[in-house]
Design brief:
The complex is a heterodimer of chains A (about 450) and B (about 140).
Chain A: E1 16-19, E2 24-27, E3 38-39, H1 40-53, E4 64-68, E5 71-74, E6 79-80, H2 83-87, E7 89-90, E8 93-97, E9 103-113, E10 123-125, E11 131-132, E12 140-147, E13 159-160, E14 166-169, E15 177-180, E16 193-197, H3 210-214, E17 219-231, E18 234-247, H4 249-259, E19 282-285, E20 288-291, E21 304-309, E22 317-320, E23 326-327, E24 332-339, H5 341-345, E25 350-355, E26 380-382, E27 388-394, E28 409-416, E29 424-430, E30 436-440
Parallel strand pairs in A: 2-6, 3-7, 5-8, 9-16, 18-21, 20-22, 24-30
Antiparallel strand pairs in A: 1-2, 4-5, 8-9, 9-12, 10-11, 10-14, 12-13, 14-15, 17-18, 19-20, 22-23, 24-27, 25-26, 25-28, 28-29
Chain B: E1 3-6, E2 11-14, E3 20-21, H1 22-36, E4 44-50, E5 55-63, E6 68-70, E7 76-81, E8 83-86, E9 104-107, E10 115-117, H2 122-133
Parallel strand pairs in B: 2-6, 3-7, 5-8, 7-9
Antiparallel strand pairs in B: 1-2, 4-5, 5-10
Classes of the chains: A mainly beta (about 450), B alpha/beta (about 140).
Amino acid sequence: MALITDPDDLNQATEVVISTGGKTIQLIEAGNLSSDGVTLQCLYSFLKEEWKDDAALIPFSFPMEAITAESFEFLDGWAPADTTTRNLLRTAGWAERNSSGNVIAEYAGIISLGTLGGSDQPYYDNDGTVTDFTYTGPINEAIQILDDPNGDGSYGDGFDRRSSLTIYAREQAKSYAVSDLAGIGVTTLAPQAYRFPLANADDLKVTENDVTVDAYGVTITFHASAQQRDIGGTNRDFGIIIDGNSRTAEEIYMAVQSALRKATDIDDDASTLVGQLAPELLEFVGDTLKTKFATNPEAGGGGVYIDNFQTADQNRITFQDNTNVERTFPFVSSGVLNFNANLQNDSTSIYRMFFTTNPAGNFGTSNAVLVDDNSAADISGLVSGNASIAFDFDYEGNVQGGRTANTDADVTIVAIGTDGAQYVVATGTVTRSTGLSFTLTANLERNYLNP
Amino acid sequence: MPYTFDCDAKIIQLTTTDELDMLDLYSRWKDEVISAASGCEQAFRVVKEPLAGSVFIGPYYFIMNDWRIRPQDTTHELVVAGTLVQDATSSLSPFKVDDLTNNIQIVRTVASEVQVVENATAEEIAQSIIDTVVP
């Protein structure tokens, strides 16, 4: 069945029970009414028709007043009969007044915009705790925002939750969604319907289940003071630190996403923060893992940094610091040198990578410059039987011999053995990329002599 | 024979008047490349490929990239043992003699075909000779 919007689909004693003695309107999931509910506008219209046509009702005060099509009031002590009834009301908010005309309760209608899976369980926070919406899937139900049982206008006997609401949709292997009052330009909730953008989709970066990723050992700490981290030689401040425990970027992301669905404390220090209420910290844009500027409930700042990520991921992680500026490490190019069997089999084989051209001396001169790797060590050494040897290069920072940083480097790679491999030279370009590959194929040596 | 290798001038300086053994020069150049860690251009390549049995064609020592061999500046006859040829990457003569003040006679043979037999049996050596004489 579907959401009822036509009063003709409602019938007294079947879907709607009217108690003039108790001044209650009760909705029952029967007949045409399912958990899909009924719009409050429809119920209001139905009540008007019944009051007009039913001689037993007309002597009593009419229960409702319409403020707008999505905002109503229950009057003179009339009210929905129970929680089930309130949960079945759709696309509206309302106030409930006692017989003295004082407001004793207010409900805001919460409607989500966008796609949510039918079994997705959205939840909200308007009092510092997690509360699931009654129904799964796209949201269209009311939540209580004001409670004043004695109707005296002070809420010590109840609560006032009109100024804060955050709704979440966090499902395993789906993108996370969150929306709050600021996001829809509202500061104080009123008894009416509100529409919040809240949509999710499959998250292709989550490929493992929670049990697996929870064992990765990734932790999150929300700090009360700024934490400095050196990025490319400059210290930056961050308030939230993720310890990646030497996991890949994808593994770190999966572990953090799982933590954000935990109903337990995920803050890895003495303070407490329930995972479900923690801010989103990471997102993938393509294959780049980006930290988000987050709301840190402690005073350390909203920047998010990842400790102990894998070096191979350095080029594809960006960090949002406490000033909400994206920071990245200088790009490190990387690749492999491949050696053929003759070079591998000659235990004396060596390799060296030179700049083909360099202000200090081109290859082919005595001043030729050996290329440094990202650790400032020469890219040279013994082949030592390896079929390939990895190298990296400080693309944005290498100024050897006066060359210009952040430019492609033309290189000449030489390999030579003694009695097993002849001299071989290869040329190539170290670009701003990973996965570079240069192959050195030396002819078999049949002439070398060292008596 | 010891040699000195001038990377910038691309000169291989001979230090004696002894016979120039190309196998030795090639081997010492390789040693130099390995030990010096210099970015000099390649000076030599060698072609020596196996034929049937233990017969090899070559070796041909190609001097490359305008590297040149400079004899010792003493009047003498420099005998070159081994087939030294000029590689396509070189435009200059393999020997640099234009700045010498003494007379040096360079005796070298550039064979159109070179074959060597290594570790062969007597029968293989005989067959190789027969193949050469009676094509």
